[in-house]
Amino acid sequence: MTDMLLEVDGLHVSYGKAEVLHGISLAMKPGSILTVIGANGAGKTTLLNAIMGLIPSTGQIRYNGQPIPRTVEARVAAGLCLVPEKRELFGTMTVEDNIELGGFLRSKHEREQMQEEVYQRFPRLAERRKQLAGTLSGGERQMLALARALMSRPRLLLLDEPSLGLAPKIVADILQIVAELRTTGVSILLVEQNARAALEIADEGYLVELGEVRKSGPAAELANDPSLMEGYLGRQDSED
Amino acid sequence: MNFNSKRFSLAAGALILLAVLPMLPVPPFWITLLNNIGIASLVAIGLVLLTGVGGLTSFGQAAFCGFGAYTTAVLTTAYGISPWLTLPLSLAMGALIALPLGLITVRLSGHFLPLGTLAWGIAIYYLLGQIDMLGRHDGIAGIPPLSIGDHRFMSGSSIYYVIWTFVILTAIAAQNLLDSRVGRAIRALRGGGQAPEAFGVNVVRAKLTVFVLAGVTAALAGWLYAHMQRAINPTPFGINMGIEYLLMAVVGGAGYVWGAIFGASIVLVLKEVLQRYLPDLIGSTANFEMIVFGILLVLILQFARDGLWAFILRLFPLASARKISADAPLLEKRPTAPQGSSLIKVEKARKTFGGLVAVNDVSFEVTAGQIVGLIGPNGAGKSTTFDLITGMNSLTSGTVSFAGKQLSGRSPRDIAGQGIARTFQHPKILPDMTVLENVALGAHQRGHSGVAKSILRLERGEEASLLAEAATQLERVGLGEFKDRPAGDLALGQIRILEIARALALDPAVLLLDEPAAGLRLGEKKELATLLRKLRSEGMSILLVEHDMSFVMGLVDHLVVLDFGTLIAEGSPADVRKNPAVIAAYLGGVA
Amino acid sequence: MDLTIATFLVQDGLTNGAIYALLGLALVLVFSVTRVIFIPQGEFVAYGAMTLSFLDAGRFPPTASLLLCFGCLVFLLNLWDMRREFSVSGLARNALLNLALPAAIYLLAVTLASTQPGAMVKALLTILIIAPMGLYVYRIAYKPLADASVLVLLIVSVGVHLALMGLGLVFFGAEGLRAKALSSGMFMVGSFPVSAQSLWIYGATIAIIVGLYFFFEKTLLGKALRATAVNRVGARLVGVRTQLTGVTAFVLAATIGAVSGILIGPIATVYYDTGFLIGLKGFVAAIIGGLASFPVTAFAAIGVGIVEAFTSFYASSYKEVIVFGLIIPVLVWLSISTTVHEDE
Questions:
Q1: Is the dihedral of CA A166, A168, A169, A175 positive or negative?
Q2: ipTM of this model?
Q3: Is the pLDDT of residue A234 over 80?
Q4: CA angle at residue C246 from C240 to C247, to 5 degrees?
Q5: Is the pLDDT reported for residue B589 higher than 60?
Q6: Virtual CA dihedral for C253, C259, C260, C263, nearest 10 degrees?
Q7: Do A235 and B588 touch (CB under 8 A)?
Q8: Candidate CATH numbers 3.40.50, 1.20.1250, 1.10.3470, 1.20.140; the one for domain B5-18+28-315
Q9: Size of interface A-B (CB pairs under 8 A)
């Protein structure tokens, strides 16, 4: 098991008195894409936030064979990076500043190097360097959020609903970029409601329902699992 | 009010002690101290209402004392008016000045009110010191004592009874107020602005009410102070005292009326002790107690944010169930719409944010007796559509009407008043209030009694009806056994049901539910579906926004499917489920 | 009114306004980064002015002892926090920052106090003594409350203000002090006399504003502070520690406070409680700037200074009434122009 990049074991999260994650376990290999799919309120975002350290959790998280560092900042330094559902960009700052800040914990040299790479990968952002992040379109914002995340040279990228609110063509572009990132050695934990598209690019899939893992396995298998379709669209005869 | 016996005997003991104390051979400065505590308690009670209950605060309460004190000082000395006649005038002065100041600041975010009071507390202090009629910095002397018939309350131990009578009456009045319909609205302020508006509370008015009341209690304190000291000057109405009053409210526990008296006692006794012993310790005389006060304030907020009174209450737990009177008259109900008539009609509703079209010319209808599901993937515009109906967001174009009446442009409160009640995707309950009180908040618009009636308990009949209604709705949804528990104790599924009960307490024509099944366990979902069916059979119309298709399939009569802000399908669940566009929207790619 | 009086009043207003501007900027800085409404900013001004006065008189500034006390307290608090996760490097850092640093400053103050160094040296020593207090005040009072509401943080600020003001009384006594000017003398600009001290004030204010501009626009740490103000979650996600930005904002505020004190010390008699009123005038400006805008705050502060100068000439006894009363029309205007009424 030590060759795993991330191992989550029996993760519980509660908001006040209500427990929303009831002991989630998952494991991912370095260099892979793992996707977590499931309905709204299943706890997918909570899972990512807990792995990132934004919210307290109980249970074990091991990263790179070691217990994961305690604070968000230490986790960023160790190579984790979350692109949250709401993007959380610095709206009144320029694209350039947003990207530069992505490399806050890296050396100046690394930062400059990464900046070049990022602008190459997202030429659209290079054109808009001086524009304020708040004035970008939805797709551009998602690109900026990804670009900012890449600046921290992550080993494990946590993506929360990268396709949310984007037009289908842009969704395809974004997922394409995600697939490309894997080839550069970045591992990706992808939370996505666009289940079919996510399973297409992923190696492994987990179906989470009501804070528990319901199903897991190779992505290709899950994609052809008829019960998945049911989980999403409902079985008409299941209700009385 | 429900006391258990331990609390009751404690309160009775305290009251008797208070009554006989001046007759015991105690040093006179004890009585002076107690008089000061009484006066400060009045101000602190106002601050407890404002800060602890309403979530606002003020550093300028000492200035309101000043208005009360100077009003009576001028009227009694210059015009010879009896102090008892100046009492209402002093109080009116407090209210009159609080009102415009409140109007200015309550719409701003929370910290502008305290900052404003800080600045104007200083301005008032300097102003009092400049006005000739008010005796400038020397103030006004020769204020007559209070008197009844021939008895003049000259000595400390005689005015003692006057002061403490006012303190106890004010505390009871505050307690009565909090335990009423208006009080519930004030207590709901802490939960944030939008939710109370959505079930019909006028948030601006509630904030103003509590600010004015705090001003009035401070003016009362000032009036008493003037007749106790019989000479006043600007010093006790300056910003330092303003800060000290806030300290008392925080120490006692911002949220407990009796805690205010407790806080005032601690601060003033501490001040007395410090002023006596600190100078010896440090070797000079000056106001060193401010160091201790400052540190105390920081420590309490760091370690006991609920104040010290909370610890005392914990020693005497309150174990009481609220009595629901079975014969309370029923609240008026709105006439039910005939089955099948049009209730909510959305026509070409459009909402754009900047360049983004969130809702794209969507039209659909909810008719009486129907459950309609509004579904679609995340980001499809469901919540925005929902907000357009409830008035949380305004339409860019198109119309929303209810039973033929236009809803566009109305406030959420107005729309609630029309009979459209809603729940929230992220439940907005007040965790410290009981389940019953949370539900009673939903019936806010069905009661009419105001502040005065509440304080005097003249609204008990109406209050009983409101609580009975809340209890009825809790029974209806199956949460009856939890009614006296704090709402924060419930599990998520129960909280969602609680929100439905609260919405039902409005006696709505339509229920709007925002993702009621999100985060629920399978069993809870089934119970919820059963409940919604039951409500429909009782004639309730329901519009629910849902992401989870399996939940709505067997439940709704009609489905409306949105994707990218556009209506892509509409019809019976069976038809919608087979629609290729819907399948593609949910699973992605081409199905 | 004749022109000479008017120019004199404007100059007076500009001088005070420049100092209010510094305070207003510090307040906006601290609020936007940490959500703390920093009432005690004025105490740093008083501490700065009085420290300089003590040094002028060849006496040892008691603020250096106070700094040492604060440092020891923070050392102990950090030690207590480390009881679960002890590390040697953490202990070393703690000792260095909270014991060695204030001790070194203390020793420097002991050595320099009696030697009557030049004005510049005294000014720098004053800054050196006051600036770390920002760090310690943050650690002691605010860090444990990082997730509290703006309202709670505001009440805490009032507590800190009371404590610091009281400590000022203990350490400096109740007497007012006046420092020597950084340089004395008058210049003629055209036909108007301008004092050298007011040139210092203008120069220092402009230097600090330009410095802040470069810090926020050009340095990564400055951008991190802005980022924290814009989006806290976003800032944490790129690895910016809340504590780092908090400490930076408070140390900057303390530094600006010390500089303000050095500037105002020679032109006004400063008492232990003078800082509060001066600080609140900075607040009037900051509130006009909505606690968010640096340029509006700076211009508003100049306005406050000028209003104050003219009222002290025409209606001197109503000076404070008018200056603090200014807040009412400002709030009216904010209330009308704002559409948001959600708390936080």
A1: positive
A2: 0.90
A3: no
A4: 105
A5: no
A6: 180
A7: no
A8: 1.10.3470
A9: 91
Q: Quick check: B488 and A18 CB within 8 A?
A: no
Evaluate if residue C322 carries a pLDDT over 60. yes
- Indicate the SS3 state at residue B411: coil
Q: Domain limits of chain A?
A: 89-152
Identify the H or E element spanning A158.
Answer: strand A156-160
pLDDT 10s digits, B59-83: 889 999 999 999 999 999 989 899 9
The domain segmentation of chain B, as residue ranges, is 5-18+28-315, 342-587
Residue B13 vs residues B8, B38, B75, B293, B470: alpha-carbon distances, Å: 8, 18, 39, 30, 36
Question: Is B120's Cβ below 8 Å from some Cβ in C?
Answer: yes
DSSP B80: -
| Angle ∠(B573,B579,B580) on CA atoms, nearest 5 | 150
| Cβ B510 vs Cβ B541: under 8 Å | yes
What are the pLDDT digits (tens) for C212-252?
999 999 999 999 999 998 999 999 999 999 889 999 999 99
Give every CB contact of residue A32 below 8 A, 6+ residues apart in sequence: A5, A182, A187, A188, A203, A204
Of C224, C226, C230, which is closest to A104 when you measure between CB atoms? C224
Residue C339: pLDDT over 60: no
Q: How far, in Å, CA of A60 to CA of A38, rounded?
A: 22
Reading the block at residue A13, the tokens are: 């999260």
CB contact under 8 A, A88 and C234: yes
Answer yes or no: pTM beyond 0.90: no
CA distance A167 to A152: 28
Tell me how far CA of residue B338 lies from CA of B400, B541, C147, C209, in angstroms.
20, 11, 52, 69
CB contact, 8 Å: A229 with chain B?
Answer: yes
| Cα maximum dimension of chain A | 64
* C300-328 burial: b if 16+ Cβ within 10 Å, else e: bbbbbbbbbbbbbbeeeebbbbbbbbbbb
**pLDDT tens digits for range B356-367:** 788 889 999 999
**Interacting residues of C121 by C-beta distance below 8 A, sequence separation 6+:** C112
**Where in chain C does DSSP place strands (E)?**
186-189, 192-195
Give me the residue spans of the domains in chain C.
Answer: 3-337
In sequence order, what are the residues at sequence separation of 6 or more whose Cβ sits closer than 8 angstroms to the Cβ of residue B405? B418
B43-57 b/e (C-beta count within 10 Å ≥ 16 → b): bbbbbbbbbbbbbbb
**Beta bridge mates, B147:** B152
Domain boundaries B342-587, CATH class:
alpha beta
Nearest CA-CA partner of C45 in C19, C67, C65 = C19
